[in-house]
Amino acid sequence: MSLTHGSPQNLSIVPLGAGDLIDRATRFYRKHFTTLFLIAAPPVVAGTLFSVGWLLLSRMIFFTTEAYDPFESGAFAAFSFVGALAIWFTQTVATLVVMGGASRNFVRHLLHGEPITFADTYRNAWSRFSGLAVASAIIVSVLSAIGFVIVFVGTFVWLMVLGLLSMAFASVPSVIAVISVIAAIGAIVTVFIAFSFVACRFAYVPQVMLVEDEGVFSSIGRSVNLANGTSLRFAALLGFTTVATYSALAVLYIPLIWYAWIAGIDFGPFAEAVTPAWFEIASQLIWQASLIVLTPVWMIGLCLLYVDQRVRLEGYDIELMANRRLGEIPDVPDQYLNPLQPALGARAEPKGVAAAAQNSPGFTTLGLK
Do 64 and 19 form a contact (C-beta atoms < 8 A)? Predict the structure, then answer.
């Protein structure tokens, strides 16, 4: 997607490929790094504080002696897992809520040249907080269940194939090793694409709710319709952000592991002593730091993909120009169904914004050049 300077007549929004999508998202992030970092920070910082607090609480409850106790270790692991799962779920829902607020701010930036700001993003998110929270909880629950099923089926099929190959090439162990690695890579790629095919159907729910003022379930239906043909680009964006997140994690985590190994910490499954609290807290901080740095790339990438899909399927660029020149699409009587979706819904608009928008200077370049 590229936008040109000047009047609306000179506006040009070109559909994005997977590489263009990632390139635009990273360049936009680089230009607005400080603002986007601050926007992404609150859910992650809150999740970090709760994670560390839950870890310390778990240790206080279960580790009352210096001696190693298998029962205490098992109870600690279960208690920690339940807390970590609840914190992860809440943090993910909060991130999706913030993403919805950011998407409206993003489209207003595109439509009227308004700046991307922390205050506007959270004001937008708060205006539809209950709906966004419900929709985000549904999305996280459904995708978690579907992802588990896909991974389980993929692992089962891979083990079946591996067993058949082992019987077929029992006399040539080296061939079995090579084929097993190839089959494992193929299984990972297949599972990843299958999950992306399903997950992209829910990718635009926050954007639809905030930009088009739809309800929870109508937003899910609209997102499913918009997702046609986006699975590979969604997979590319998801793969890029996943690899980038774990790369950033490795850069920070490897020195921590090295220092812990020098300090004599035992990482074996049957360690005689529990891992020191400082190491687990440092691990949490490193993981959350990786998320807070790269979450905005994912957020902006999905917003760009949403706008791109509306350009491809609905001529959104023409609608944006018409909105700039002619104002919002007029309402139709309640007994009729309006087939047109607004460029930007009117709900939760600050007073005076609509009038001010008519005098706005036009479209911006989004920092994408």
Answer: no
